[in-house]
Structures are given as structure tokens and as C-alpha cells.
Amino acid sequence: MQRFKVFFCHGRLIKYICQRKGIGHHNKVSRSHGDSQVIYQYIATSTMGTLYIVPTPVGNLEDITFRAIRILKEADMVLAEDTRTSGILLKHFDIKNHLISHHKFNEHGTSAGIVERLKGGADIALISDAGTPGISDPGFYLVREAAAAGITVQCLPGATAFVPAIVSSGLPCDRFCFEGFLPQKKGRATRLESLKDETRTMVFYESPYRVLKTLRQFAEYFGGDRQASACREISKIHEESVRGTLAEVIAHFETTEPRGEFVIVVAGKSTKKE
Questions:
Q1: What is the C-alpha to C-alpha distance for residues 165 and 243, in angstroms, rounded to an integer?
Q2: Spatial contact of 56 and 127, defined as CB atoms under 8 Å apart
Q3: Which pLDDT tens digit goes with each residue over 116-152?
Q4: Considering the domain boundaries, does residue 4 fall inside one?
Q5: Partners of 202 in the beta sheet?
Q6: Structural domains in the chain (count)
Q7: What residue numbers bound the domain in which 199 lies?
Q8: Residue 44 counted as domain residue
Q9: What does the pLDDT look like over 199-214, one tens digit per residue?
């Protein structure tokens, strides 16, 4: 990674910082306390590393970006949700970097140590098994802690499952709400009840083992005539979108076994007066 430039002379370093920050007048260093604080803060933050949030393909490996590959190669270490899964990805792109396990079961215990490494100047990349970390995947807690410590956090643009699902659904995507995975038990009915009057398009994640149960609950709370799209295996060979009313989508998966990870897009409540 690009590091802070080292100057041979302290005076030249201060002059460089002043020019970058617009401090002083006619290249003369201001000696005010406020300017000194800016200079010292600049030196401190410039020696810190950067936390890179790197999206990885949700299906087709060709969906990764050139920049993502470069960051994963150049970072001092890569944090991975599952090192076995991510190891396959890195090997495919000939990325020889150190993988460290970072997932929902250990992130609260390991984040403090990672933040200290970032403070010490390490550049660290965070990836999940697929998609963008933090979106129904580990990442939020570490990002929050790093940002609170004044560390630069950069999230690369890239793959995430819900964007192609909602865009290809045929439902309005100018305004939508992302719900991710619904609570499994406690709070599930409350969440569904709160969404009954939602007028924006709604986006949910679901596993193949619970997709029928979830679709039936949607029909119960939103009505069987509500338009929906169930998109599975996004960016993979067997990608499929089943569109229609909730009743029609349910009927399809009652006769066709659901396979693969699902993104379910449901139309919001109509605002048209009957």
C-alpha cells in the first residue's frame, strides 16, 4: 500500500503538511496552537492503516473487480468469514496473502486487536463468503470500531445479491427497503406485522429450506395477490427468477423444490384508492 512519504528534514515535513492542509502564508509555517494541532493530527492519521471492505462474487467469479484483486494482493492481511471458502477464491486469482478468520462468532472479541493493527499502520482487507461484508454478513461491528478510532474505512463498489434481484424483478426499485433475513423465531411476527403497510418494495434474503414457509407468511400478512419475485442462484449457471403474485410463486415452489440461496422481492402496499 502507499505509505506516508518520509522526509529527511523535519522542516520540510512540516512545510509539506502545511501545503497539503493550506496552513501558513506564502509557504511560511504558522506557529499558532490550532495549526500545530492540525499538523500533529495529520501526522498521526497518516501513519494509520486503512480498512478496506472488499465485495466478492456472489456467483460468477468474473464479477470481481480489478481493484478488489489488487487490494487483496497488496493488503497486509485479509480477514475472511470462512478461510476455507475464501481460500479457494484467493487461489483462483493467484492471491498469496495471509487469511485470518473473522466471523459473527468472534468479531466482538477480535475487533479490538484488529483496530490496534490498523492504528499501527497495517492495511487490512475484509471479505465475506460472498457479496459485500456488512450486508447480512459480518462487518458492521469492525467498521464501527475502526471509524470511531479515526481509521480510514473504504468500501469498494462491487457484488451484492439484492441489487440484481430487485432490478430484474420488474417491481419499482426507485424506493425500497432492505430487510435481509427475518428473525427466525422471536420478533418474526412483529416484523411482518410492521411491514403490512409498507408502500416501498421490500427485499428479503432466505435459505431454500425456509423459502416456502416465508412465502406463505408473506401471503398471510400481505395478501396472496401481492406481486413478488423469488430470485435464486444469482450470477450462477442456474439463476432463475419466479415472478407473479405471491400465490403463484408459492404454487411454483410447491411443485418445484427450492434450491440455492434466495432473494425475495415483494411489492409494497398499493397507495391507489379503489
A1: 11
A2: yes
A3: 999 999 999 999 999 999 998 889 999 999 999 999 9
A4: no
A5: 177, 266
A6: 3
A7: 162-266
A8: no
A9: 999 999 999 999 999 9
